[in-house]
């Protein structure tokens, strides 16, 4: 269903348009971004990664429940995920590059005890956020929120 | 010689040097050590050569604490004892199990593992298993085969050996042929009389279910009646109306422990075709024979120490993806083994997974890749913390012989669960860190134990060993504190239970005790 909503072209349009709209409405977030373009591409890649988790809606919902409520807007989730990827020296030049970086950051999470228990599953904090973001994107679309 | 106590003339007094109560793993091992020695030994066994319900009923008792196993199925009351249906899993305790641990109360033995090593070596022979060598690499498991979460620093692969010795059938003939060894079947040790001050056993009264009573007057007595019954006999003995033998400090029956068994959860592998087919069980041909072994996952001592964790044995079960069932079905079809209706079912499985079959077969041939796994089930057996509130004591009900029945009040401390959770968290983290998969833990949060949780058949601690009479029932030589000539053999003397199966340690301790007693007698 997620895939249907996010066909490739529509996805890109959504991602770019939505990302812009979303960024415009979040001044405080904007202020923290030194490299707008880079972050926008990160957001696009992230949305695409989330799109690949099409079957993961149920777990995404559970992840949303497991995270502190203050962290569960699309904006903050994206910011946390990309921020951690960046601090770990990871990249997001493409969806695959971001997916690889997220895997690396997730492994670091496990190493550093950043673990979230979601319905008994022991997930890394980063992957929990990615799943949660995927669920939000599916529920709310790439814009808004 | 093996005799039937029901044909002993009532009122008989037997006067051997040594009297052993109970012919299980501990009692039979002890008795064998006296074969060929100048000492006359009487071995009293409650049961006969085979299972008998009336005798087994003497094991009946109550459970008033956490739900505990049926007391008449978790032990067996006939010649050979509970080894008549044991699993035969053998391995020594880990060195850390013997050590005092800062953060684990009451932990530690009066001696270290290296002290017990010579007897462990001999115990291997008694259990008729391979050499005293438990290094997986020496059992054909190459370190390269071991997936990274289980090759340190927090988890490691270990092996145990499998004995097929049932002590009764295997050693009966040897005991029968020993002239100075008298085994009495159907002979129930009933009461140790240790005089007014309980300082030394003067005599042991023995009863049969057929109503015959007789007496044993020995120089030394050894209780080897099993993890619970040893405590029961001490509590029921001594002066009339007293607290029992060796119980000046109200320790007999306390610190009762078992191993905690439960499913730890499921690992979803990151890659369904990951290689995880290093041998989890098999026969190893080497060391001059064929030796069955089983591998499992344990915690290295450094990890337990660093993280203040108790011991745990983790084993696993495979949940294969349908393709494996299809491959097996294909084999059956090809070999024409499918009986009747099975053939159709097999064919449909094969057709349904045709692609998978081809893929699997090709991969296995081309790349030697592992078995496609849907999930790995994680099974845990963890150490219970010694706890004085967990105990066995005498109830008011009496068995058919007139002995008070046992009441089990099995209790845990909160740390038993919180530490199990911590270990599973560590496992989940390791599995994630290595990119091996994700763990669904059945004990992720402080809540209930998983529904299949139980305390197993390894009954330990109820007559614990400690040099200080205020902290233990027996001393480091397994002699009951304060009673000059009474000793205990079996897992009831274990002050800490570790997570490993106990019988090899029971046998090693019995051998050590026999050596000690020979010195005492000489
Ligand atoms: C299903 C099952 C599987 C097991 N698998 C394993 C395993 O794989 N590995 C492992 O290490 N351990 C295993 N165990 C535990 C193992 O069986 C025991 O640790 C071992 O048998 C204990 O030896 P024991 O001599 O102390 O006691 P027991 O073997 O219980 O022998 C005690 C003997 O004392 C006799 N007795 C009792 N009361 C009296 C009395 N008043 N007078 C005279 N005689 C008396 C009994 O009849 C019995 O013969 C298993 C147990 C069970 C139930």
In words, what does this structure look like?
The complex is a heterodimer of chains A (145) and B (522). Chain A is built from 8 helices and 2 strands. Chain A is mainly α and 145 residues long. Chain A has one domain (34-140). Chain A has a two-stranded antiparallel ribbon. In chain A, helix 2 crosses helix 4 and helix 5 (57-66) crosses helix 8 (125-140). Chain A is globular and about 35 Å long. Residues 1-20 of chain A have low confidence and may be disordered. Chain B contains 11 helices and 22 strands. In chain B, helix 3 (113-126) packs across helix 11 (503-521) and helix 7 packs across helix 9. In chain B, the strands form 5 sheets. Chain B has a 6-stranded parallel β-sheet with strand order 1-8-4-3-12-22. The longest helix of chain B is centred in the C-terminal third of the chain and has 20 residues, at 414-433. Chain B has 2 domains: 2-321 and 376-521, FAD/NAD(P)-binding domain, CATH 3.50.50.60; 322-363, no CATH class. The two termini of chain B are 24 Å apart. In chain B, strand 14 and strand 15 (289-298) form a beta hairpin. The complex binds flavin-adenine dinucleotide.
Q: What is the helix/strand order of chain A? A: HHHHHHHEEH
Instruction: Please report the number of helical segments of chain B.
Output: 11
Multimeric status of the protein: heterodimer
Give a short account of the largest sheet of chain B. Answer: 6 strands, parallel
Estimate the helix proportion of chain B, in percent. 10-25%
Low-confidence stretches of chain A: 1-20
The helix tally of chain A amounts to: 8
What is the global morphology of chain B? globular
Let me know the average pLDDT of chain A: 75
CATH architecture of the largest domain in chain B: 3-Layer(bba) Sandwich
Report how far the terminal alpha carbons of chain B are from each other. Answer: 24 Å
Structural category of chain B is alpha/beta
**Low-confidence spans of chain B: pLDDT under 50, at least 5 residues?**
none
Strand order of the largest sheet of chain A: 1-2
Structural domain count of chain A: 1
Sheet bearing the most strands of chain A, described?
Answer: 2 strands, antiparallel
Secondary-structure-based class of chain A equals: mainly alpha
């Amino acid at each position: 269903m997620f895939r249907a909503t996010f066909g490739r072209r529509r996805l890109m349009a959504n991602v770019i348009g939505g990302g812009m709209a979303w960024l415009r409405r979040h001044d405080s977030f904007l202020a923290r971004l030194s490299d707008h373009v880079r972050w926008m591409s990160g957001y696009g890649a992230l949305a695409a990664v989330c799109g690949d988790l099409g079957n993961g809606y149920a777990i995404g919902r559970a992840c949303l429940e497991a995270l502190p409520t203050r962290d569960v807007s699309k904006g903050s989730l994206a910011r946390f995920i990309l921020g951690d990827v960046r601090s770990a020296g990871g990249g997001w030049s493409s969806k695959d590059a971001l997916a690889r970086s997220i895997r690396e950051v997730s492994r670091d999470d496990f190493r550093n005890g950043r673990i979230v228990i979601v319905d008994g599953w022991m997930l890394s904090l980063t992957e929990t956020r990615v799943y949660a973001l995927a669920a939000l994107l599916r529920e709310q679309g790439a814009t808004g929120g | 010689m093996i005799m039937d106590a029901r044909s002993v003339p009532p009122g008989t007094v037997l006067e051997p040097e040594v009297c052993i109560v109970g012919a299980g793993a501990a009692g039979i091992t002890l008795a064998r050590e006296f074969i060929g020695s100048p000492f006359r030994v009487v071995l009293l066994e409650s049961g006969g050569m085979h299972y008998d319900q009336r005798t087994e009923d003497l094991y009946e008792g109550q459970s008033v604490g956490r739900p505990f196993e049926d007391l008449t199925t978790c032990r067996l009351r006939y010649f050979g004892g509970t080894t008549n249906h044991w699993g035969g899993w053998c391995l020594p305790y880990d060195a850390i199990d013997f050590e005092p641990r800062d953060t684990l109360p009451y932990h530690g033995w009066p001696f270290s593992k290296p002290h017990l090593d010579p007897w462990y070596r001999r115990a291997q022979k008694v259990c008729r298993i391979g050499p005293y060598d438990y290094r997986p690499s020496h059992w054909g498991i190459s370190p390269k085969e071991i997936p990274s979460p289980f090759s340190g620093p927090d988890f490691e692969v270990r092996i145990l050996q499998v004995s097929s010795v049932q002590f009764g059938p295997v050693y009966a003939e040897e005991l029968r042929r020993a002239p100075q060894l008298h085994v009495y079947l159907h002979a129930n040790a009933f009461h140790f009389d240790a005089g007014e001050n309980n300082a030394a056993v003067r005599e042991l009264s023995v009863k049969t279910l057929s109503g015959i009573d007789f007496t044993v007057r020995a120089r030394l007595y050894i209780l080897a009646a099993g993890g619970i019954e040893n405590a029961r006999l001490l509590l029921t003995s001594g002066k009339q109306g007293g607290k029992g033998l060796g119980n000046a400090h109200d320790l007999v029956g306390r610190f009762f422990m078992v191993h905690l068994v439960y499913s730890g959860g499921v690992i979803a592998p990151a890659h369904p075709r990951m290689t995880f087919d290093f041998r989890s069980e098999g026969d190893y041909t080497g060391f001059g024979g064929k030796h069955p072994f089983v591998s499992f996952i344990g915690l290295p001592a450094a990890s337990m120490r660093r993280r203040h964790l108790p011991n745990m044995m983790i084993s696993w079960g495979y949940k294969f993806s349908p393709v494996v069932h299809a491959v097996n079905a294909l084999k059956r079809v090809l070999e024409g083994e499918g009986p009747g209706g099975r053939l159709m079912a097999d064919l449909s499985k094969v057709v349904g997974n045709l692609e998978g079959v081809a893929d699997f077969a090709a991969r296995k041939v081309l790349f030697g890749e592992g078995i496609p796994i849907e999930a790995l089930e994680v099974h845990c057996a963890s150490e219970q913390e010694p706890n004085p509130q967990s105990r066995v004591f005498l109830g008011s009900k009496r068995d058919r012989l007139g002995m008070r029945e046992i009441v089990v009040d099995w209790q845990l401390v909160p740390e038993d669960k919180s530490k199990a959770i911590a270990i599973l968290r560590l496992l989940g983290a390791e599995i994630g860190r290595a990119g091996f998969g994700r763990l669904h833990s059945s004990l992720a949060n402080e809540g209930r134990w998983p529904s299949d949780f139980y305390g197993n058949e390894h009954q330990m601690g109820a007559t614990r060993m400690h040099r200080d009479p205020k902290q233990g029932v027996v001393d480091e030589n397994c002699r009951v504190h304060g009673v000059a000539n009474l000793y205990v053999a079996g897992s009831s003397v274990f002050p800490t239970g570790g997570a490993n199966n106990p019988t090899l340690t029971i046998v090693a301790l019995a051998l050590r005790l026999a050596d000690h007693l020979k010195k005492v007698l000489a």
